[in-house]
Amino acid sequence: MNQAIPFNRPFIIGKELYYIAQAVLSGHLAGDGVFTNKCNAWMEKKFGATKVLLTHSCTAALEIAAILCGIHEGDEVVMPSFTFASTANAFVLRGASVRFVDIRRDNLNIDEKRIESAITDRTKAIVPVHYAGVGCEMDTISEIAGKHGLFVIEDAAQGFNATYRDRFLGTIGQLGAYSFHETKNVISGEGGALIVNNESLVERAEIVREKGTNRSQFFRGEIDRYTWVDIGSSYLPSEVVAAFLFAQLEEYEIITDKRKRIHRFYADNLEPLEKDGWIRLPVIQDLQAHNGHSFYLLVQSSEKDRDRLLSHLQSNGIDAIFHYLPLHTSPMGLRMGYRKGDLPVTEELSGKLIRLPCYFELAREDQERVIEEIYRFFGAAGPRR
């Protein structure tokens, strides 16, 4: 019997365990130690960000961003409904209302042509979500934000080391957020980072992240004692998390190259099914350098057939899964006044989408098995190799 193929599998690639031991032996396991600083500095240099602050999750980074933008009761924030709950929660927790916008059919990102009609005099920010590591149309979004005096906060949870017009995702808006959850490209189990691209927000970002205190300034010797000066929370990861992450950052090129090869192999071998009209594959334009984060397909016929394909794969030991259920049709979304039918493209495509196993140690023979089972489901001859 074939061994099961998981959707994801965390991995060790380099000095993760060695660095964890170093962190323990250093006598400093709380946040903002040597490895946290190494991670921050690495990303600042690599991505050209003004400031990077490691957090315990991408959710935490988004929450800090909401505070930095002064989001409060009565404000509105524009974002896609096709995203994880954390994208909305960060702003709802501050009392804001969410204005959900439909997605594009090609790359499943927020439809930039629909953003402006969702803006009111209460809108404070636009939150583009870079789905599957493919960049949103950031030039247009930035132009709209500038016209209306809005913040742009990039949810780049899936966008680490991907670019839009040669600019790294997360560094284009005033603020950005990465995730290092175990399902992402570069991992630390749980973990994230806030990217601050506006110098005027850096000092307050440090304070909010450090429980509302000016502790960071104290440790730099800028003040002789630290105290409570603003709202905030405990958003720091431990040095164990940072140590694991730093080892992965050192190998980011190998990780990205491998995931892009996996992505390309799926695309090349499933292309005949797309040409025959059974499925649709991810669309990646020339201006977008993706990172191979996720490989998905859309079953062209119906949601029922998508569910049948999922059942077929899972019954054959392949852990393929659907992705986001649209937030506007969730119980929370319905309580906000949204209804099914409000965002037809989001509803249609989310009901046809399947994500295939895609992780660093995915073996070629396992990938071939996934592809063969997809062909078998559609009753088509498999690809020639």
Core attributes:
385 residues; alpha/beta; Aspartate Aminotransferase, domain 2; Aspartate Aminotransferase, domain 1; 2 domains; seven-stranded mixed beta sheet; three-stranded antiparallel beta sheet; 14 helices; globular
Folded structure, characterized:
It is a single chain. By secondary structure, the chain is of the alpha/beta class. It folds into two domains: 234 residues, 3-Layer(aba) Sandwich (Aspartate Aminotransferase, domain 2), CATH 3.40.640.10; 127 residues, Aspartate Aminotransferase, domain 1 (Alpha-Beta Complex). Strands 1-9-8-5-4-2-3 form a seven-stranded mixed sheet, sandwiched between helices. Strands 7-6-11 form a three-stranded antiparallel sheet, with no helix packed on it. α3 runs parallel beside α4. It starts with 15 loop residues before the first helix and ends in a 7-residue tail after the last helix.
Largest sheet: 7 strands, mixed
CATH architecture of the largest domain: 3-Layer(aba) Sandwich
| Total count of strands | 13
Strand order of the largest sheet: 1-9-8-5-4-2-3
**Low-confidence residue ranges:** none
> Structural class from helices and strands?
alpha/beta
